[in-house]
Protein: Pyrimidine-specific ribonucleoside hydrolase
Organism: Leeuwenhoekiella aequorea
Amino acid sequence: MSKKKVWIDTDLSVGMKRYHKEGYSDVDDGYAVLQLFKAETIEVTGISAVFGNTKIDDAYRLSLKMATEFAPYKIPVYKGAEKKIDLAEVKTNEAVEALAQVLRKEPQHILAIGPATNIGILILLYPELIKQIKEVVLVAGRRAGNDFFKVGKPTSHHAPDLNFDLDNDAFRILFENNIKVVLCPFEISNKVWITANDLEKLKTNNPGNIWLSEQSQPWLEQWVSSGEDGFNPFDVLASHYLIAPDDLITEELQAHLEIHPNDMLLDTSEYNYKQYLICDHTPGYKVIYCYNVVADYHQKLMQSLIKD
Ligand SMILES: [Ca+2]
């Protein structure tokens, strides 16, 4: 059986302190990347870094580290966009050019677990390659403008729909060009938890697992201090979809961009608005919306991470 060719576009920030406020950055991209490295049905054809959870130089450095130290075969790594698409001056980058070259050779599945910026630029610059994109699996979206991403118990803050918030236009470009889009939103990842016990289990003699487990510790403590028992490994739902789509429960919905009061203010302000990626049954752009996991999902996830 031939392997599924997957290109990873990531804003890896494992172990990083945040630049803009106190605390640590997300570790979830690390789980997604490691899971794909270990999947025997997948061939990772390249990794492109993108800004997002951290700055582009950090995402690139961490992508290089993971590919060099933990990948079971050689995977090239490229530096992508440092900021959202400037529609008035669309600029290519090393990552976009490398992905274009790979797509010219053969069709690819794309895991885009940061802002969709690199993919959006590629589509604008090389529309002839759209037919080579089998699907793009992204982490974004919600069902309604008042579905807030509540984090902490009791709710201490709303999490942003970060990937979408950082580059609304990039998502719009995907939709308007009829790319097959799969969304793994907060609604699904909020049903999956990684706990202290799981991090303990991850500390096998596998260097990637040990590193990820250790680097996840401060991130876990951050969630525990807000009243949760663990953290949601958001991006790993998207990588899991590429490996075993049947482990995720999906629904075909229609996506649209809508403007509503800004949910990043706990009591949504009357005078502060933002764009939302809404998925429902009213006419829009067709997407596969993943909203739940199978009953033994947690066990399947841990198995996929722990194996050598
Ligand atoms: Ca990410």
User: Anything to note?
Assistant: Residues 84 and 228 are 32 Å apart (CA to CA). The mean pLDDT is 95.
